[in-house]
Design goal:
Elements (H helix, E strand, L loop, with lengths): L3 E9 L3 E6 L2 E6 L2 H6 L6 E11 L2 E7 L2 H11 L6 H22 L2 H5 L6 H11 L3 H6 L1 H4 L19 H27 L4 H14 L5 H12 L4
Parallel strand pairs: 3-5
Antiparallel strand pairs: 1-2, 1-4, 2-3, 4-5
Family: Belongs to the RuvA family.
Organism: Rhodalgimonas zhirmunskyi
InterPro entries: DNA_helicase_Holl-junc_RuvA_I, Hlx-hairpin-Hlx_DNA-bd_motif, NA-bd_OB-fold, RuvA, RuvA_2-like, RuvA_C, RuvA_C_sf
């Protein structure tokens, strides 16, 4: 199993890149969202990968974080969702968006992905709703993007936009960690994982930059008995 690739981008296609790892080229398919975040040809890159093995096919799929790779694995377990459909969902929603959509039972969000019909979207939500809390709880640890190993690759000059991209990734990691911590706190208080995940997802959607204490308070208000 090839679980990680680190090298330089040889060329970029519409939905894949060729990564040169010490003279060996690996063709890696990625979601539209991941493709948009990859550097230019000649620059260093590192991706987590999942190898699809079939009788007549070997294909690598690349992900910036283990969290996204975990969602790809879960999406592929749903009947009717293959690698292409999984990448379409990931490309439209991202890992955090899938967390939120499944926790809230939002089939329309899943259906917004290219090629995903209402029945498939419903199956994704129904079959993964009990697994979403566990993935959310791992979000902080699994949401860190890979950095190319300088011991293997020659240093490359960072693009001008790198500081902004780094800040965005840092905010994303902070959001994932806050949601994971809030979910853990609510389950420790005795709330069922499913309802806790739904409340945290809704609270995070209302206040994307909220830190853990604020998320917990907002989620508790959502979980409080009405009337």
């Amino acid at each position: 199993m090839i679980g990680k690739i680190a090298g330089r981008i040889d060329y970029r296609g519409e939905d894949h890149v060729l990564i040169d790892v010490r003279g060996v080229g690996y063709l890696v398919y990625c979601s539209e969202r991941t493709m948009a975040g990859l550097p230019n040809p000649g620059e260093a890159v590192a991706l987590y990968t999942d190898l699809l093995v079939r009788e007549d096919l070997l294909q690598l799929y690349g992900f910036p974080t283990l969290l996204e790779k975990e969602w790809h694995r879960l999406l592929m377990s749903v009947q009717g969702v293959g690698a292409k459909a999984s990448l379409a969902i990931l490309g439209t929603l991202g890992a955090e968006g899938i967390n939120r959509a499944i926790a809230l039972g939002d089939c329309n969000a899943v259906k917004a992905a290219k090629g995903i019909g209402p029945k498939t979207a419903q199956r994704v939500v129904n079959e993964l709703k009990d697994k979403a809390p566990a993935v959310m709880a791992m979000g902080g640890a699994l949401g860190v993007a890979l950095v190319p190993d300088d011991a293997v690759l020659e240093p490359v000059e960072a693009p001008v936009a790198a500081p902004r991209a780094t800040a965005a990734k840092a905010r994303s990691r902070g959001t994932q960690a806050a949601q994971a911590e809030a979910l853990s706190a609510l389950t420790n208080l005795g709330y069922a994982p499913g309802e806790a995940a739904g409340a945290v997802a809704q609270a995070a959607g209302d206040a994307p930059d909220a830190e853990t204490p604020a998320l917990i308070r907002a989620a508790l208000k959502l979980l409080a008995p009405k009337g």
